[in-house]
Design brief:
By secondary structure, the chain is an all-alpha fold. It contains one helix and no strands. The longest helix is centred in the first third of the chain and has 19 residues, at about 5-20.
Amino acid sequence: MENEEFLRLCKAKVAEYTNSHMDVTDRQQVTAHDVYLVWSCKTL
């Protein structure tokens, strides 16, 4: 799995988790494009 594919998958999972735990009365959905990656580091 390449780095970009991993980051795309992570953003999708964060959006999915947020939508499942968000209050229904907010009437909003988060997409993977709404998720902002702040920091990424490869460490051995």
